[in-house]
Each structure stands twice: as structure tokens, then as C-alpha cells.
């Protein structure tokens, strides 16, 4: 196949944020925006995305699950490896865009920041599993903990992570913001306490920039 005939690699977008930050609210907007621009996109999530990943998701989120800190991180990366092999890499190689609700930044934030698993261990797993694969754009939905708690209150049964105390979620938020500060070229930090219309205008601008790169 000539270079002119080769399929251009797709774009990889991830959505991140503390629980209650509003990621799910904007997924349909992103889906509609990409469709209007005739972008062939795959939407997925972590934990999850594959049959194996969904089983791991059930284990990790169930309130009655008992698991060591290291085992929790290892389970996250086991599901991620399958997710990359089965969904993410094939989509990108075929020139499709891939939008994932959470990826490795969540492990750094929840298991690293929240649980205290050393970042060095997470980094070693990241290098082994991802082999250089990184998102092209990470939308980080950020807002104060009290606002996030108000949004989740009474809306659903809270999972194992959502039930954690406020100091856990503060450590998660801090870890996210540190990663965003360290990689400003990849992260777009969105103030999720603003109106939905304002947030989505920002999202559209970031998607437009990524789309125009060709």
C-alpha cells in the first residue's frame, strides 16, 4: 500500500474528572458534534469497554468488594490491556476516533491520589500495557467537591468509590489537577460549575482544534 493509500490514525479523546463532575452529561453533545462533522467515532468506557472489562467494572464498583490497593490497580490495568487490544487500538488503526469515558489518568487519580498507590508502580504498568499509547486530548471536568456531592445526592445508589469520604475525593481532584498542569498540551481543564451551554462551547472549540489537525 502506498503512503497516499495508508489509513491515517484516528484521534483518541478521553473524559476525566471526579465523581459528579458531569462527564456523562456531555457525552451526547460530543457524539452529536462528531456526527455533524462526519467523524466515524467509537464510544467506550473504563472500567469496561469489553466483556472482560465489564466484569472487572462490576467487581471494582460493587460496594461490598474487598480488594487490596495493589490488586485494585492491577485489575484496572488488566481491563485496560484488553480494552486496548480489543477496542482502542483497532479503532485508531482503522482511522476512527475513539472517545473513552475515563482512561489511565483515572488510575493515577483514584488509585494513586485517592488510595496512595505509588505513582511509580502505576507508571510501570502504564508503560507495559500502553507501550506509548496516549490520548490526543483529555477533557478534565473539574469542580469543587461540595458541588459534586450535591449533584450526586439522591440521584442514584453510590458505588464503592463514590461512597468514599471527602478527603479521598479531594486527593483525587488534586492528582487530576497535577497531571493536567504537567501535560498542558494534552489536557483541557473545564470548569464544570458553569452552565452546560458554556461548557459545551468550550468542548466544541477543543474538538474543532483537534479535527482541524487532519
TrEMBL record:
Enzyme class: transferase
Residues involved in ATP binding: 17-24
SUPFAM superfamilies documented for this protein: P-loop containing nucleoside triphosphate hydrolases
GO molecular function terms listed in the Swiss-Prot or TrEMBL record: ATP binding; dTMP kinase activity
InterPro entries on file: P-loop_NTPase, Thymidylate_kin-like_dom, Thymidylate_kin_CS, Thymidylate_kinase
Keyword Flavoprotein: no
Keywords: ATP-binding, Kinase, Nucleotide biosynthesis, Nucleotide-binding, Transferase
Residue ranges of every copy of the Thymidylate kinase-like domain listed in the record: 15-203
Gene3D superfamilies on file: P-loop containing nucleotide triphosphate hydrolases
Family statement drawn from the similarity comment of this UniProt entry: Belongs to the thymidylate kinase family.
Task of the protein: Phosphorylation of dTMP to form dTDP in both de novo and salvage pathways of dTTP synthesis.
NCBIfam families linked to this entry: DTMP_kinase
Protein name: Thymidylate kinase
Lineage of origin: Bacteria, Pseudomonadati, Pseudomonadota, Betaproteobacteria, Neisseriales
Originating gene: tmk
Amino acid at each position: 500500500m502506498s503512503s497516499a493509500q495508508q489509513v491515517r490514525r484516528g484521534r483518541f479523546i478521553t473524559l476525566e474528572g471526579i465523581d459528579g463532575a458531569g462527564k456523562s452529561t456531555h457525552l451526547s453533545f460530543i457524539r452529536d458534534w462528531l456526527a455533524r462533522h462526519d467523524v466515524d467515532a467509537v464510544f467506550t468506557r473504563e472500567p469496561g469497554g469489553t466483556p472482560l472489562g465489564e466484569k472487572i467494572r462490576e467487581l471494582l464498583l460493587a460496594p461490598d468488594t474487598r480488594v487490596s490497593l495493589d490488586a485494585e490497580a492491577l485489575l484496572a490495568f488488566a481491563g485496560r490491556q484488553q480494552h486496548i487490544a480489543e477496542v482502542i487500538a483497532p479503532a485508531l488503526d482503522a482511522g476512527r476516533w475513539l472517545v473513552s469515558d475515563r482512561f489511565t489518568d483515572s488510575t493515577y487519580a483514584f488509585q494513586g491520589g485517592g488510595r496512595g498507590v505509588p505513582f511509580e508502580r502505576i507508571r510501570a504498568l502504564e508503560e507495559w500495557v500502553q507501550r506509548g499509547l496516549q490520548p490526543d486530548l483529555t477533557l478534565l471536568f473539574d469542580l469543587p467537591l461540595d458541588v459534586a456531592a450535591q449533584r450526586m445526592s439522591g440521584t442514584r445508589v453510590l458505588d464503592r468509590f463514590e461512597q468514599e469520604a471527602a478527603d479521598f475525593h479531594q486527593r483525587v481532584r488534586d492528582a487530576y489537577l497535577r497531571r493536567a498542569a504537567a501535560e498542558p498540551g494534552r489536557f483541557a481543564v473545564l470548569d464544570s460549575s458553569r452552565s452546560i451551554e458554556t461548557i459545551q462551547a468550550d468542548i466544541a472549540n477543543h474538538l474543532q482544534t483537534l479535527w482541524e489537525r487532519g
